[in-house]
Amino acid sequence: MGEGLAGEATGQVSSVPARARPPAQPFDLSGAERRDLGERLVGIVLFACAAISVLTTVGILFILLERAIEFFAEVSIIDFLTGTQWTPLFKGQESFGVLALVSATLMIGALSMLVAIPLGLMSAIYLSEYARPGVRAVLKPFLELLAGIPTIVYGYFALTFITPEVLKPLFPETKPFNVLSASIAVGIMVLPMVASLSEDALRAVPRSLREGAYAVGATKFEVSTRVIVPAALSGIVASIILAVSRAIGETMIVAIASGSRAQVAKDPLDGAQAMTGYIVQVFSGDVVSGSVVYKSLFAVGLLLFAMTLLMNIFSQWVVTRFREVYQ
Amino acid sequence: MSASVPGAAASVEKTQLAQTRRLAARQTVARVFNVVFLLATCFAIFALAVLLWTIVGRGWDWLSWDLITRMPSRKAEQSGLNSAVLGTIWVISLTSLIAFPLGVGAAIYLEEYAPPSRWTKILQVNIANLSGVPSVVYGLLGLGIFAEMLHLGRVILVGALTMAVLSLPVIIIASQEAIRAVPWSLREAAFGVGATKWQVARHHVLPAAFPGILTGTILAISRAIGETAPLLVAGASAYVATRPDSFFDSYTTLPIQIYNWTALPQKEFRSLAAAGIIVLLLLLLTMNSVAIILRQRATRKARW
After folding, report:
1. Rounded to an integer, what distance in angstroms lies between the CA atom of residue A87 and that of residue A103?
2. Quick check: B55 and A156 in contact, CB under 8 A?
3. Is B197 near chain A, with CB under 8 Å?
4. Which residues on neighbouring strands pair with residue A86, listed in sequence order?
5. What is the pLDDT of residue B288?
């Protein structure tokens, strides 16, 4: 858009060396005025592009709050936040105790971290401290590939492989839909994220720290675990918090593998519906726009949004607050 | 550390012996963890291999050209992905058309134009936070604002707008990184011969950063192709047996068709879902390879 306006002046500038330009004339024939107008227009257009991101946030907040407030006019907010019965589709005895969904979400978040944190952290240490450049160049793309697989594929994998072929032989009482299979799949999904963000943090630790530790006779393992990891701890913790936030917001794996029975999650081998799973379940059926069930989606969405936002902010705070500054 | 002093007392020798033993133990620990860390890293490869092996094993027999030319059907043997593949192409093309210019524009603003003010900082933090919002929440946004408040309904345009809003933060962040990697000397030289801000950005910074921007955008778009939840919420239809031919048609996409087949109890549909996943993964693999080739070519051509 701005290109047409500025285009004429451009050819001149790039082809004529600076010294050949004529001195300022009483009649400005350089097109500078038009160029200024174009410049300002382009600036405004680019600013508008950036401002759309603010509009997005406003839009999300507006739509979630508006519908959630409508919902809380019909269902008490206290019952919503403290109840443990989630039966929105039972005619006559609808109950909206969101803790049932939250418990499943948190259980999946916690169990998935049991997979993602140790494996992710160890991969990060290996890639940053142990691997030779050639080995790293081979291993790293695999992690990136794993990160690029759509979540629906992990969901399919959890339902049709992890549950029947891994969990069932180990624990015969495993239900077809269960929290554990979803958690394992979510853990594998966020593993590359923990690994790559932690690796970045480890690599940012200055070389002098490693050299100092090696000089006093520490082994590679000691250098990694007692010097480098503590030095990079803020970055590692931030990556873990981000991973938890991703796990909590993960939708398709949970919707497919952990079932659609809303109950307070106690047994990982049993199914329990998570917050995101509920949203998908309602949309897989027919939902009447404007009904209580419909509005409840936005209340659950708002809670989910608040939880993940808090964690993301917390993670940024950890990075800036506890960052070790060298030199 | 273990240098022995001739004529030392017996106790000193004892401590030395103990130290040597401890050293051996420490070195063993170090060697063991060398392997443990390597195995942990290889777990990712192992998981990827098992996942692909499972899916290819189940879906291979169902893979055929007919699969992508047939419409979905109640019978697994006659069912196909035609409407889903076309839906994905329609939605993603429109998503790219919307998100690419907006994302690059925003990145240029933030890197080249924005004054170092509080407002700029808010913009930046806001974009970082948006990239962490769960995708299903974007679905609710699309449903509430685009489908209902703008009265557009369950159509391709709404799906594309939702996906564009979802991909924007990722595209902006990737483009910013690419723009930031362009050295200052390039800008200074251009400003030095009298170029304006936009001329510098348009003729010098953008061409230099373009491969990086393109790579980031392709990766963001391929992530969008695999997204299921936002479109499920924002109004893709479960069953579409006609070809879409305008932005105001109802639609379904590959991941949604896969989800629907996975949710069915019959074994045949599960296999069909696996075949659908193979098609989806092949599509993503193609896009990612293009991104990698572009990246490699760009690093080879780098002029600074």
Report:
1. 15
2. yes
3. yes
4. A96
5. 84
